[in-house]
Amino acid sequence: EMHRVASSGSNGGSVRARKEKKLTYVLNDANDTQHCAGVNCLDVLKSSVSSDQSYLFTGSRDGTLKRWAFDEDAAPFCSATFESHVDWVNDAALAGDSTLVSCSSDTTVKTWDSLSDGVCTRTLRQHSDYVTCLAVAANNCNVVASGGLGGEVFIWDIEAALSPVTKANDSTEDSSSNGANGLGSSQPVASLRNVGSSNNISVQSSPSHGYAPTVAKGHKESVYALAMNDTGTTLVSGGTEKVLRVWDPRTGSKSMKLRGHTDNVRVLLLDSTGRFCLSGSSDSMIRLWDLGQQRCLHTYAVHTDSVWALACTSSFTHVYSGGRDQSLYLTDLGTRESVLLCTKEHPIQQLALQDDSIWVATTDSSVERWPAEVQSPQKVFQRGGSFLAGNLSFNRARVSLEGLNPPPAYKEPSITIPGSHPIVQHEILNNKRQILTKDAADSVKLWNITKGVVVEDYGKISFEEKKEELFEMVSIPSWFTVDTRLGCLAVHLETPQCFSAEMYSADLKVSGRPEDDKINLARETLKGLMGHWLAKKKHKPKPQASASGDILSVKDSKKNLTASKSEDNSAANDPVYPPFEFPSVSPPSIITEGSQGGPWRKKITEFTGTEDEKDFPLWCLDAVLNNRLPPRENTKLSFFLHPCEGSNVQVVTLGKLSAPRILRVHKVTNYVVEKMVLDSPLDSLAIDGGPQPLFAGNGLLPSGSKPWQKLKPSIEILCNNQVLAPEMSLATVRVYIWKKPEDLILNYRVAIAR
């Protein structure tokens, strides 16, 4: 029998074990063709000889990249979504016509088939922290550099990194399609995983996929900007060290260090030859450097705040720049003449030139294309309103404060690709199934997270007032956590806490179940999320069982997942109940990781049915396939039940009682009635048998079957001298009425006629 091999990374085990305790699902808005968070990066695939179609690629804080197709006149439409990153996409670049490269705060660099419907071809796990920037060599599309926090810069040979010869089982999209592990060796996969999981093993220990990138060593601080010349012989990097470092990307060796900026270097551009370099910094300055002379030629005080984005004409004579001051400027590098092209409502993150226009990405989820006269920038200056860029930032700031800023040359973008507004505020309601959200446009919505849909769109109303209006006095354990880092709701389930909440089937309006039947919210939610996977899995050919009942296929030989014959995986055949049915249109995405590769993200409708514990956490498969949940705490609650002081009802019980948290007060009433009636000699009718077990059966005597039923006294239950509503659960009474840490005390008395 195979057993799970722990990753051999010295310090990766505990981290991985912790990560495998979690499954996250991301709820997509009704229109998932749009980005729902700020756009961090863009790149244009110009029409070529082979295709007259141009494409725009965008990468967003929502974790996805998108490809936009546009014909000259028609509005752009989203023709593909690239989904696999599990955190913000920070930069993207085209390496040649067919490969899109992206990097993310999830510490990975990914390659994609840019003209596919979103196929991730490789996940490169070498960085140990956020990857912030990429650079490609225009004429040598195999060379890509990636830089990130912690001063890490790697230079990749994309072709070598992609070559199937060395493809190990590195992640879900890498090699599920090419046989055992694509190595053509008999080596078990586990022994190949000697890196990956523990990111801080140095490159030299040859990573799991048999290919190691070149390392540019020597950064003391985080890297935020990279640029490469066309042939891939010069690489420039910048970051919080405030200097520009120049490298030979072929060897990773340093060639020079250039000082001048007084703050983080955020963006770099190299001319095609690699001699001239432009830099933009958080010190609000743009600088032009001559790498041949190893010095700064000019400083341009154009902006009043951090410069985050630059784009240059091919002749390297004019630069377009944007940043935190929400303004896009065009500057003539020779004459220092500068003109305000347009102003935005959000900080500008990245720029890309296309024909005579410029694409602008901001911290907003929409993207705009503005006129820019790229072929003949002089035309913009002829519109008037230009000024001479000084070389002192404080003078520029003063001019700006005095309100002498010129009007922008253009008022309207030529094309707008709209985005969905990101969620900026959320509140989990007490029923622990609904979340109230407010987006950046102040629109308020109510979501049901076990169905993944918007229940109610209230439009622009007061979030606080609606929150109070929706308040319910119910207490249900917190079985999930939520964040909106990706602009949408991400719901996190962690074992064993996520299995702490149950509800009666009847309250969820699930019919055809016994009266006291309880439903575990997390288990049913997981089943709903994995319904497509289960359906496809069922249609896969079954592995043959041997005489002893063992499954022969290696893949399924993990005993703890393969249900025994008697069980026959009946749990997996349970229907998905209506309150847990997720939509197939704009379906949610799952983010999780199994025993191999690393975290991944995929729409619930995209599963093939072949995924297993290499991809999903074991606890999750166990819950869905075998209905096996981990031992749970806090599903029970203990309390005392005493007669009210001064009431002459008999003492039903002494000592402590225990019952499910979700048990309702009317069940306690029934219990008291039953005990009182059963314990009192009525009409000299002797009742034998010991004390009743608490809530035996369903806690109700069958009506009409016992002679004393007609004498049933009317009892009410109190807590803290408050009469309790029969529908309240014990947990709710405890939280809202009792409000003390010690055991709950309930009292009972004969109901007072009102």
Automatic annotation (TrEMBL):
InterPro entries: WD40/YVTN_repeat-like_dom_sf (IPR015943), WD40_PAC1 (IPR020472), WD40_repeat_CS (IPR019775), WD40_repeat_dom_sf (IPR036322), WD40_rpt (IPR001680), WDR48 (IPR051246), WDR48/Bun107 (IPR021772)
Biased composition (Low complexity): 175-186
Pfam families, A to Z: DUF3337 (PF11816), WD40 (PF00400)
UniProt keyword annotation of Repeat present: yes
Location of region: Disordered: 168-189, 562-600
Key words, A-Z: Repeat, WD repeat
UniProt WD repeat ranges: 82-113, 124-159, 216-257, 258-299
UniProt biased composition (Polar residues): 562-572
PANTHER family, sorted: WD REPEAT-CONTAINING PROTEIN 48
Protein family: Belongs to the WD repeat WDR48 family.
Official protein name in the record: Uncharacterized protein
Lineage, uppermost ranks: Eukaryota, Viridiplantae, Streptophyta, Embryophyta, Tracheophyta
